C-alpha cells in the first residue's frame, strides 16, 4: 500500500476517537453542570438551615433572658421580704428587751423599796 492509502485509514480511525473525545467532553460538561446545580442546592440548604438555627438560637436566647429577668425580680422581691421580716423581728426583739429591762427595773425598784421599808 502506498502512503496515501494509509492516510485515509488513519483519518478514519482518528475520526471515531475525536467523536469519543467530544462525547466524553460533553459528558464531563453535563456532570460538571449537575455538580454545580447540586452544589448550589446544598449551599441554599446550608443557608436555610443556618438561618433556621440562628432563629432558634435567638428565640431560646430571648426566653432565657426573660426567665433570667423574672428570676432576678423574684430574688429582689424575696430579698425585700426578708429585709422587711428582719426589720419586724428587730423591732420585736427591741420591744422584748425593753419590756424585760422595764420588768427588771421595776423588780429592782420594788425589791429595793421593800428592803428600805423593812429597815
Q: Please tell me how large the radius of gyration is.
A: 50 Å
Stretches with pLDDT under 50, minimum 5 residues: none
How many beta-strand segments?
0
Largest sheet features:
none
Structural class of the helices, strands and pairings? mainly alpha
Average pLDDT reading: 87
Strand content: under 5%
The total of helices stands at 1
Shape: rod-shaped
Distance between the termini: 169 Å
Which structural traits does this protein have?
0% strand, rod-shaped, 1 helix, 119 residues, mainly alpha, single chain
Commentary on this structure:
With 119 residues, the protein is mainly α. Helix content is 97%, strand content 0%. It has one helix spanning 3-118. It is rod-shaped, with a radius of gyration of 50 Å. It starts with a helix and ends with a helix. The relative contact order is 0.03. The mean pLDDT is 87.
